[in-house]
Amino acid sequence: MTDLRRLALVVVTVAVTVVGEFGCSSFGNVVTFDVRHKFAGKGKNLSALRAHDIRRHGRLLSTVDDDLPLGGNGHPSETGLYFGKIGLGNPSKDYYVQVDTGSDILWVNCAGCVKCPTKSDLGIELTLYDPKRSSTSSMVYCDQDFCTSTYDGPLPDCKPNLQCQYNVVYGDGSSTAGYFVKDAIQLQQVTGNLQTGSTNGTVIFGCGAKQSGELGSSSEALDGILGFGQANSSMISQLAAAGQVKRMFAHCLDNIDGGGIFAIGEVVSPKVNKTPMVPHQAHYNVVMKEVEVGGALLDLPSDIFDSGDQKGTIIDSGTTLTYLPSTIYELLMTKILSLQPALKLHTIEDQFTCFQFGENVDDGFPVVKFHFEDSLVLTVYPHDYLFQIKEDIWCFGWQNSGMQSKDGKDMILLGDLVLSNKLVIYDIENQTIGWTEYNCSSSIKVKDEKSGTVYSVGAHDIASASSLTIGGILTLLSILIALLHSSIS
After folding, report:
1. Residue-by-residue DSSP string for 370-408
2. d(CA 51, CA 121)
3. Residue 334 in 3-state DSSP?
4. Is 257 a catalytic residue?
5. How much is the pTM?
6. 100 catalytically annotated
7. What DSSP element (H or E) covers 52?
8. Given 3, 34, 100, 410, the catalytic residue
């Protein structure tokens, strides 16, 4: 299963681990692009949910043990919950890339790629990037600063004009390999409150030359990955190192209407309470202290929240469901079901606990609250942790980590179903994460540090993110990335 500094506001399309510089002399306020949600709304495909999380679960676990070339922080997963369209090259071509907070680079499949997917069942047309057909592309070589910093030092056997390469192996055996290039990226810039205009930048990203496993064969294939991890190779880290942006970002994902916001920079409204991140972790981890169901705390051992080598609780919008160790899962489910003793449960796909219920689930099931360090609380309503697959048929979004894999039996991971409809803020500079319940189809306010100007960034208003289904399971989601920066050059 399963990841900026200066002024003027720029919102870049969600999570591009584009580690490079923007090539325009004044990049202006906010940039946006459209992002779609695979499983938004009703009629969720249980097989797809299960396959997605199984693959991602393995990848999240593998990051702890593997010393990956790209900073060692986070692995992309094959097809995330959120994917968007970006433009690359000159002339610009459209590419659909997965959005993932657990990833550290942007890469797309390239011309001549071995075992790259040629079609997708997601209702999109796949495109191979060809640096030779772009007038603005250039190679990144092993002796250049980007490459040496990505690999934490000079590469052995590096020679002049030798390409800077990457090779990532995931927990399920899938892999991607290729080389880095620098080229133009086309974005939608916010020129004022809820107003946009087209702008171009320059980024360094991976050119995929060979894929294996699920990356090369999945029916839900995309053109690449757009990551947003903490590693030095990520866009946030690279731009922050250049003094261009703050290492802060926020997302607000609407799993009902499909709208959403993804902003890089300082969100000034709404205000949120925060909890410290666990230091030196590959992902975004925080410390859970207690679990409350229907107003009563579960009687749990105090050390249950230490997830073995993976300290703390992983916050990951790229995972569909929520995974809890057996001790927490069993007590949680027992407490919830004690309020519905007549409920007849059925297991679907050997994993999902489902039932028939014709009334309002918020009236029939308890609210669950996760308590974190510094008194931060994540409130999860029944309509959040239950999802409807047919009329009157509901399934639990809680999953038993102990049933997933031996290595992941103690994993605590909060996924999209409990993070949706909340504004979640990641402050990497100060190592905190916070959230608040929010209408993600509305707008937030982001501050331009230099001028002090506050801009409204709204998902539907900026990118016209009305609901749209493709293949029965996709919903249009407009996600924004706000970069606070006066002049990126």
Report:
1. EEEGGG-EEEE-HHHHEEEEETTEEEE-EEEGGGT-STT
2. 15
3. helix
4. no
5. 0.76
6. yes
7. helix 46-65
8. 100
